[in-house]
Amino acid sequence: MSTIYILWLRQLKRSFRSKSRIIGSLGQPLLFLLAFGYGFGPVFQKAGEGNYIQFLTPGIIAMSVLFSAVFSGIEIIWDKQFGFLKETLAAPVSRVNIMIGRTLGGATISIFQGLIVLAISFMVGFRLESAVAAWNVFLFISLIAILFTALGTAIASILQDFQGFQMIMNFMVMPLFFLSGAIFSFQGLPSALEFIARINPLSYGVDGLRGSLTGVYQFGFIPDLTVLSLLTFILILIGGYLFSKIEA
Amino acid sequence: MKIIQVKNLVKTFGTIEAVRDISFEIEEGTIFALLGPNGAGKSTTIKMITTLLKPTSGDVIINGFDIKKQSDDVRRSIGIVFQDSSLDEELTAHENMDFHGILYKVPKKIRRERTEQLLKMMELWDRKDSLVKTFSGGMKRRLEIARGFLHHPKVIFLDEPTIGLDPQTRNYIWDYVKKLNTEENITVVFTTHYMDEAEKMSDIVAIIDHGKIIKYETPQTLMDEAHAKSLEEAFLYFTGRDIREESATSDIDRMRNIRKSHGRK
Known about the structure:
The complex is a heterodimer of chains A (248) and B (265). In chain A, 79% of the residues lie in helices and 0% in strands. Chain A has helices at 2-17, 19-46, 52-82, 84-89, 95-124, 134-158, 165-178, 191-199, 201-214, 221-244. Chain A is globular, with a radius of gyration of 18 Å. The model of chain A has no long low-confidence stretch (mean pLDDT 89). Chain B has helices at residues 42-49, 71-77, 93-103, 108-121, 137-148, 167-184, 195-201, 219-225, 231-239, 248-263, and strands at residues 2-13, 16-27, 31-35, 57-62, 65-66, 78-81, 155-159, 187-191, 204-209, 212-217. In chain B, the strands form 2 sheets. In chain B, strands 6-7-8-3-9-10 form a 6-stranded mixed β-sheet, sandwiched between helices. In chain B, strands 2-1-4-5 form a 4-stranded antiparallel β-sheet, covered by helices on one side. Chain B is globular and about 50 Å long. The A-B interface holds A 2-3, 6, 10, 13-14, 17-18, 77-78, 81-94, 160-163, 247-248 and B 47, 50-54, 72-73, 75-76, 80, 82, 84-91, 95, 98-100, 102-105, 131, 259-260, 262-265.
C-alpha cells in the first residue's frame, strides 16, 4: 500500500509543481470549445440537432482527460531517460504496485483536469439539462482517466525513447479522439469509419459522459460502464505485465 | 558465509558478448573492488547481479537468494548507487530521501534520523528543501550516495561512487563506507577508475577485461605479482596500455549516450 501511495503522491507533486503544464493543458480544451462550439454551432443548429455546445462539452472533457492520461502514462519514458526509473525498479517492491501507483497518480491528475474543463464549459454556455447524477459524471471521467493512463504506461514500457512518440500521437491518440463521437455523432459516417468508432473505447467514455451530463445516451449506461470497466481491468493487467518486464 | 555467488554468468547484446562466462564468490563483510577498463563489462555485471538486467545464462545467489526466482528477496538484501543519476529532479532532496525510505520500508523514526545525519554529512542539509534540478553535479552525486545508504542492506553496490567529487567528499564517503562495513558487517561491492581508492579500501580486487575476470586477488598479491609499486601500475600491467574506445561494449555505451542526448526534452 505504501508503495502505491508514494508513487501516487510523486505523480501529484510533479504535476502540480509544473504550473506551465497545467495552464498549457487547459488552453487546448478551451480553444476547442470556443472554436468548434461557436464555429460549428450555427450549422449544427440549422441541421436541427440542437445546441452544439451541449453536444460538444462532454466530448471536450473526454478529450482533455484522454490527452492528460496518455501523457501521464508516457511520462515513464522521461523517467527512463533521466534514470529515475532505475531507483524504482531496483527497490524491493512489487512492480505491479509501482505501476498501479503511477497509474492512479496520472489518473488523479487527469480527473482534476476533466473537472476543471467542466467548470470552464459552464462559462462558455454549457448548461445541465436533466437531473444529473454527479457520481456518474465522476465515474466516467475516472474510468477514462484510468483506462488511458494504463494504456500510456503499457506503450511507454515498450518504447525506449521519444522517437515513437509522434507516431503514437498521430496514429493513436488523435484518431481515438476524432472517431469517438466527441465532436460529431456517428450517424451518417461511412460504414468503415463507423465501425472504427464503435470499437473505439473512448466512444463509450464520451457516450457515458454525454449521457450522465445531458441525459442522451447512444449505447446506454450499462453498456458504457461494462465496456470501460472491462477494458480498464484488461489494460491494467497488460500495463502491469509490460512494466514488470522493463530492464534497466 | 558466501554472500555473493556468481556462476558462469553470460550476457550478450545481439552478437556482442558483454560478459563472457564469469564466476566468483564474495565472503560476507568483504570490501570488493571490481576494476576494469571502459567497456570491460563492469556495469553490465553489476546490473545483472542487482536484478536490473536478465542474464543470458548463468546463476547468481545473493544472501542465499536466487536472482531469477527470488528477485524481491535479493532486492531487499541490497542497496545500489548507480553510475549515472537516478534522482527525481522535480522533487526536493528531502523528498527523494523519503521516497527511497518508504520504498525500502525504513521505519519513519529511523528514516528521519538517518536522512538528517546523511544529508548533514554530505553537506546538503540546508538545501534539503530545494528541488534537485537546481543542484550542481557534485551535489546530485552526494545526494545519490546519501540515498543509497538510507536503508542498511546486507550488500551495497557502488558503481563509480566518487566520480566527479572533490577529495574531501571522497574521504568522507569512504570513511562512512568503512564504518558501515566494520560496524554492521555490510559487504561492499564497488567499481572505480581511481586505483588508489581500490588499493586503500578493498580486501579483494577482481580485474575484468573483455567480459572476463582475469584476476581475483588481494591488492597486495596483485602488486607483488606485477612487481608494481601501486595498484594502478599492476592494473596497467594486467590490462595493457591501449585505450579501449573501440572495444565492443563501449559501442553500446556510445549508442546509449547518443540516444540519451537526442532524447532529452
